[in-house]
C-alpha cells in the first residue's frame, strides 16, 4: 500500500512516499540514494545488505518498509563519517576486506553484536557473523578486527 | 613553464577530468589517443612505452598512477602505488591510483592470470625510475647544481650541501606532461623503502566507510533500472510473452529488442516485480546431461586430445614398473559466486557511451559495446573502478552490452544488476573435468605416467616430477574450443584455471603411489623431484607443520600437496578431522609455503593466501553446480554453500625468501593445492580415498563404505 512513512535514518528524520511492502534495501539505495548498503542476493542469505533497525542487525533486502516506520535505522553512512568508529578503524588496520563489497554489512553486523555483547569471545563473534558471506576469504582478519575493536571498546579507546 | 614539460595539444576545460573517490581529486589531461598507443594487436598484452601514460605529477606534487588493471580486491591499487612510491621516492599517501578507465588509463588486456605483478608492475616501476631521472636532470638545470650533488626525498630535490636550494616535483612539472625521456634508466636494485613493506591498502578508507563506488552505485539523473527476461534453462527458446500485466505497473516501460525483453523502472525492485508479471512460454531444450551423467557426456563429446607432455617410452615404463595404479578423478562445475553480481550502468551523451561496469577487462568490454552499438571504439568509455570480486568470472560483461543497448533505446541512463539467480545461471563456470592417470613405481621412483585430461584444460597437467617415461594428453578446456554441446553452459577461467583440477588429480595420485611404495608422502615426493624451488616449499611447509613421517593412513588426518602456477611454487599441508557417521570434514589447520619470487607486499600476499585457503575449502568440500537439462537447480547460497566463518581453519602462511626471482602473481597460486591436500588428509584420517570434488559428506560416506 502506498503511504508516507517516516523513520530515523542515521539520526535524521527520513520521509518517503512509497509502497510500504517494498524492501528497505531498495528504498535506501534508490529513493534515498544511500548506496553503502549493498545488494548481494535479495533473499537474506548473504548479509551484504545488513543494517541496524533499533539495535537489531537485519537484512534490509527482506525487511519491508512498513517494519521500520517510526524506528531508528543505521546504515554504514551513519557510522564514522567524521572519525572512524573503532570497528572501521580495526577493519582498516587489519585489512579485513579485499573487494570490500561485503564490508558495510560485516561492519553493521559487528556493530550490532558489540551493542549487545561488548566483550564477545572469538567463538561468539564467529557464530554471530556466520551468515555474512565473504567470497574473498577475509574471514580471519574480520574476526581479528572485531575482537580487537571489542577490546578497544573495553579499554575506552 | 619548466624546460622539459609541455601542455601538448592545448588544454581546454573539458580536457580536465576529475576522478572522485575518498576525497581524492586528480586533475590531468585526458588523452585517449595516448592511452591507445602503441599500435597493438587485439588480445595481446602490450601497453605504451612512454612513462607519461602511467604517471602524472600534479602541481601540488601528488602523483597519479594510471593503469588499465582493475581493483577486484586483490590489491592492485596498492601494489602499483608501491612501484611508483619506491622509484619516485615519494610517500605512499601522495600516490593516487586510477584504474580501469579506458579513457584515462593505458591499454590493458585484462585483470586475470595473476599478471599484474609479473607483467605490469615492472613497467610501472620502470616508468617511475625514468621519470625520477628526468626530474633530477630538470632540477639540476633549474638549480644549477650537478645531478651528483642533488638528493631526492619525498618528492623534493635539494642540493646536498645547501638544502634550502630545492625544488619539488610539483614545481618542476606543474601538472603538465613530461616531454623529456631517458633511455635505459635502471630501477633500484636494493635499499628499498617501500617494496617488501606492508603499506596500508589504498582502497581501505573507501571500503570501510561505504564510500567505495561500485558499478551499481552510480546513480545518474533519470536512471532507469532494467530487469531482463531470462530463459528457465540453457537452450530454452522463447515462444511467446504477454507483457500486458507488467506494462500496467505505474512508471514501467517494456522494451523488446532483438531477442531481449526488458522491464524498466526508476526503482530496481519495482522493475523486478513487474518482470515477474510477464507471462512467458518457453520451448524446453532437448534432454541433456545432468550433474551425474556429465562426466560420461564430456568424455564422449570432447575434441581430439592433444599431447601436452611426453618423454621416454610408455611401454618401457610399464616394463620397469613394480606396481601400477590407475585411477579416475572428477570435478564438477564450480561457480565464481562473487558477492557483487554482474552490474553495469550506461549513459549516452553526445553520441558517447560511458559505461560503469563490474568487469575484469574494461578494454575488452569497450570493444564489445562499440561493436554491439555500431560505434567506433573511441565513442565508448568503460570505467571499472571498484569491482566486488571477480575470480575470473567477470572477464566478459554481457550486462554492460545489455545496459548500453537499453540506454540507447530509451534515451536515458540504464542500470542492469543481475539477480543472484541470473548470476548463477549466466556464470562461465569452471568446467567439469575427468582426469585419468595410470602411473607406475619401482624402488621408490616413479617410472611411468600416462595421463588423460578431459574438460579441465592442459595447464599443469604435465607433472613436474622426474619421470622417465610419460605421456600426457588433454582434450577440451576452460579456454574454449570445445565442441558445441560438450558443456551445457558457458565455461571459463575460474581462479587458477585448469590447475585446481590437474593438481587435485596429480597430487592425489602421488599419495597413492607413495602408499604403494611404502613411503611417507613427503619422502616420496622429495625422492622424485629435483626442482629446487618446489623441494624448498615442501620442506618449509613440512617444518612449519611439524610433519611426522609415516605411511598413510596414520589416523592423524594430515595431508600434503604441492604445485606450480605461473612459475610460483606452493606446498600446502592440511589437518582434518572426519566424522565417520556424518561424513563431515572439519579442516582444523592449513599450512602453506609459497615461493612467489620477490615479495612486493608481504601482507598483500598473505591476504591472497588466506583468501585462497577459504575459497579452496569451497571447491574442495561443498561447491558444485547441480543441473538437469540446461536448468541450474541450486542458484542460491543455500543450494550452493560457500565458505563461512565457522569453516575457518588455523591458517599459517610462510613466504620463502627468494628475491632473486622477479615478483610473481599472487592471486591464484595459493589456491591450487587445496583439493589434493584435503583429499590426502581425509585419507590419512580415515583411509578413505576421495576421487571426486567436492568431497561432500555423501561422497565421504560412500568412500568410507567402500573402505
Shape of chain A: globular
Structural class of chain A: alpha+beta
- Would you identify the CATH H-level superfamily of the largest domain in chain A? Beta-grasp domain
Count of DSSP H/I helices of chain A: 5
Biggest chain pair contact, residues each?
A: A-B, 57 and 60 residues
Strand order of the main beta sheet of chain A, please? 2-1-5-3-4
Number of domains of chain B: 3
Fill in the CATH topology of the largest domain in chain B. Aldehyde Oxidoreductase, domain 4
By DSSP (H or I, 4+ residues per run), the number of helices of chain B equals: 18
Q: What fraction, in percent, of the residue positions of chain A are helical?
A: 25-40%
Please give the alpha-carbon distance between the first and last residues of chain A: 46 Å
* Biggest sheet overview of chain A: 5 strands, mixed
The count of domains of chain A is: 2
Low-confidence stretches of chain B: 7-45
What is the count of β-strands of chain B? 31
Q: Strand-residue fraction of chain B?
A: 15-25%
- The overall strand count of chain A is 5
Can you describe this structure?
The complex is a heterodimer of chains A (157) and B (707). Helix content of chain A is 35%, strand content 17%. Chain A is an alpha+beta fold. Chain A has 2 domains: 2-78, Roll (Ubiquitin-like (UB roll)), CATH 3.10.20; 86-154, Orthogonal Bundle (DNA polymerase, domain 1). The longest helix of chain A has 16 residues, at 139-154. Chain B is α+β, with helices and mostly antiparallel strands and 707 residues long. Chain B has 3 domains: 5-208, 2-Layer Sandwich (Aldehyde Oxidoreductase, domain 4); 215-284 and 342-417, 2-Layer Sandwich (Aldehyde Oxidoreductase, domain 4), CATH 3.30.365.10; 294-333 and 429-706, Aldehyde oxidase/xanthine dehydrogenase, molybdopterin binding domain (Aldehyde Oxidoreductase, domain 4, 2-Layer Sandwich), CATH 3.30.365. In chain B, 28% of the residues lie in helices and 24% in strands. Chain B is built from 18 helices and 31 strands. In chain B, strands 13-14-11-21-18-19-20 form a 7-stranded mixed β-sheet. In chain B, helix 10 (362-373) packs across helix 11 (398-410). Classes of the chains: A alpha+beta (157), B alpha+beta (707). At the A-B interface, helix 1, helix 2, helix 3, helix 4 and helix 5 of A face helix 5, helix 7 and helix 16 of B.
Amino acid at each position: 500500500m502506498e503511504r508516507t512513512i517516516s523513520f530515523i535514518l542515521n539520526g535524521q528524520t527520513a520521509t518517503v512516499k512509497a509502497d510500504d511492502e517494498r524492501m528497505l534495501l531498495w528504498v535506501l539505495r534508490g529513493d534515498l540514494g544511500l548506496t553503502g548498503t549493498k545488494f548481494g542476493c535479495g533473499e537474506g542469505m548473504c548479509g551484504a545488505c545488513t543494517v541496524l533497525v533499533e539495535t537489531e542487525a537485519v537484512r534490509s533486502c527482506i525487511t519491508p518498509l512498513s517494519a521500520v516506520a517510526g524506528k531508528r535505522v543505521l546504515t554504514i553512512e551513519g557510522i564514522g563519517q567524521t572519525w572512524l568508529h573503532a570497528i572501521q578503524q580495526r577493519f582498516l588496520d587489519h585489512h579485513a576486506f579485499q573487494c570490500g563489497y561485503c564490508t558495510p554489512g560485516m561492519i553493521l553486523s559487528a556493530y550490532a553484536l558489540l551493542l549487545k555483547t561488548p566483550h564477545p569471545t572469538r567463538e561468539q563473534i564467529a557464530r554471530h557473523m556466520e551468515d555474512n558471506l565473504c567470497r574473498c576469504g577475509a574471514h580471519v582478519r574480520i574476526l581479528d578486527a572485531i575482537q580487537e575493536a571489542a577490546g578497544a571498546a573495553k579499554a575506552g579507546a | 613553464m619548466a624546460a622539459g614539460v609541455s601542455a601538448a595539444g592545448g588544454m581546454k576545460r573539458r580536457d580536465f577530468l576529475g576522478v572522485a573517490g575518498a576525497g581524492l581529486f586528480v586533475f590531468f589531461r585526458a588523452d585517449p589517443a595516448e592511452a591507445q598507443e602503441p599500435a597493438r594487436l587485439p588480445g595481446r598484452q602490450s601497453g605504451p612505452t612512454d612513462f607519461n601514460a602511467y604517471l602524472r605529477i600534479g602541481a601540488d606534487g601528488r602523483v597519479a598512477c594510471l593503469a588499465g588493471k582493475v581493483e577486484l580486491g586483490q590489491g592492485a591499487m596498492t601494489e602499483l602505488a608501491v612501484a611508483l612510491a619506491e622509484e619516485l621516492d615519494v610517500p605512499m599517501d601522495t600516490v593516487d591510483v586510477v584504474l580501469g578507465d579506458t579513457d584515462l588509463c593505458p591499454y590493458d588486456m585484462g585483470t586475470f592470470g595473476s599478471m599484474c605483478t609479473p607483467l605490469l608492475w615492472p613497467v610501472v616501476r620502470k616508468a617511475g625510475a625514468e621519470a625520477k631521472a628526468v626530474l633530477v636532470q630538470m632540477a639540476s638545470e633549474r638549480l644549477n647544481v650537478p645531478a651528483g650533488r642533488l638528493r631526492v626525498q619525498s618528492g623534493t630535490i635539494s642540493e646536498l650541501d645547501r638544502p634550502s636550494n630545492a625544488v619539488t616535483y610539483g614545481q618542476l612539472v606543474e601538472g603538465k606532461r613530461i616531454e623529456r625521456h631517458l633511455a635505459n634508466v635502471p630501477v633500484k636494485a636494493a635499499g628499498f623503502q617501500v617494496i617488501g613493506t606492508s603499506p596500508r591498502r589504498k582502497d581501505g578508507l573507501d571500503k570501510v566507510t561505504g564510500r567505495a563506488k561500485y558499478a551499481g552505485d552510480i546513480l545518474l539523473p533519470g536512471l532507469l533500472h532494467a530487469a531482463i527476461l531470462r530463459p528457465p534453462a540453457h537452450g530454452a527458446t522463447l515462444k511467446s510473452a504477454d507483457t500486458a500485466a507488467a506494462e500496467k505497473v505505474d512508471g514501467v516501460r517494456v522494451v523488446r529488442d532483438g531477442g531481449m525483453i526488458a522491464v524498466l523502472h526508476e526503482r530496481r525492485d519495482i522493475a523486478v516485480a513487474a518482470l515477474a508479471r510477464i507471462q512467458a512460454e518457453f520451448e524446453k531444450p532437448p534432454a541433456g546431461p545432468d550433474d551425474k551423467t556429465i562426466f560420461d557426456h564430456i568424455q564422449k563429446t570432447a575434441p581430439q586430445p592433444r599431447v601436452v607432455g611426453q618423454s621416454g617410452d610408455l611401454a618401457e615404463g610399464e616394463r620397469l614398473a613394480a606396481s601400477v595404479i590407475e585411477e579416475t578423478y572428477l570435478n564438477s562445475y564450480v561457480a565464481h559466486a562473487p558477492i557483487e553480481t554482474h552490474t553495469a550502468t550506461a549513459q549516452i551523451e553526445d553520441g558517447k557511451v560511458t559505461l560503469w561496469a563490474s568487469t575484469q577487462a574494461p578494454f575488452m568490454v569497450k570493444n564489445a559495446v562499440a561493436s554491439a552499438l555500431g560505434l567506433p571504439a573511441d565513442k565508448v568509455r568503460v570505467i571499472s573502478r571498484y569491482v566486488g570480486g571477480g575470480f575470473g568470472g567477470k572477464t566478459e560483461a554481457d550486462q554492460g552490452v545489455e545496459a548500453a543497448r537499453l540506454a540507447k533505446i530509451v534515451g536515458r541512463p540504464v542500470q542492469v544488476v543481475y539477480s543472484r539467480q541470473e548470476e548463477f545461471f549466466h556464470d562461465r563456470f569452471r568446467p567439469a573435468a575427468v582426469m585419468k592417470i595410470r602411473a607406475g613405481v619401482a624402488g621408490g621412483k616413479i617410472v611411468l605416467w600416462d595421463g588423460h585430461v578431459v574438460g579441465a584444460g592442459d595447464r599443469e597437467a604435465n607433472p613436474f616430477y622426474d619421470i622417465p617415461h610419460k605421456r600426457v594428453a588433454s582434450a577440451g578446456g576452460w579456454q574454449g574450443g570445445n565442441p558445441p554441446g560438450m558443456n551445457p553452459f558457458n565455461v571459463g577461467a575460474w581462479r587458477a584455471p585448469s590447475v585446481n583440477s590437474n593438481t587435485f588429480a596429480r597430487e592425489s595420485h602421488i599419495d597413492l603411489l607413495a602408499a604403494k611404495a611404502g613411503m611417507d608422502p613427503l619422502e616420496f615426493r622429495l625422492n622424485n623431484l629435483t626442482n629446487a624451488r618446489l623441494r624448498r616449499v615442501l620442506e618449509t611447509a613440512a617444518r612449519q607443520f611439524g610433519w611426522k613421517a609415516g605411511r598413510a593412513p596414520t589416523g592423524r588426518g594430515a595431508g600434503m600437496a604441492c604445485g606450480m602456477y605461473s612459475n610460483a611454487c606452493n606446498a600446502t599441508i592440511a589437518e582434518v578431522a572426519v566424522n565417520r557417521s556424518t561424513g563431515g570434514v572439519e579442516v582444523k589447520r592449513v599450512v602453506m609455503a609459497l615461493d612467489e619470487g620477490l615479495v612486493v607486499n608481504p601482507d598483500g600476499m598473505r591476504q591472497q593466501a588466506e583468501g585462497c585457503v577459504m575459497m579452496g575449502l569451497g571447491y574442495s568440500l561443498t561447491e558444485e553446480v547441480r543441473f538437469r537439462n540446461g536448468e541450474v537447480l541450486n542458484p542460491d547460497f543455500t543450494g550452493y554453500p560457500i565458505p563461512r566463518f565457522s569453516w575457518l581453519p588455523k591458517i599459517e602462511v610462510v613466504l620463502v625468501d627468494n628475491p632473486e626471482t622477479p615478483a610473481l602473481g599472487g592471486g591464484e597460486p595459493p589456491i591450487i593445492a587445496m583439493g589434493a591436500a584435503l583429499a590426502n588428509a581425509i585419507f590419512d584420517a580415515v583411509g578413505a580415498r576421495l576421487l571426486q570434488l567436492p568431497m561432500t559428506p555423501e561422497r565421504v560416506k560412500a568412500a568410507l563404505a567402500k573402505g
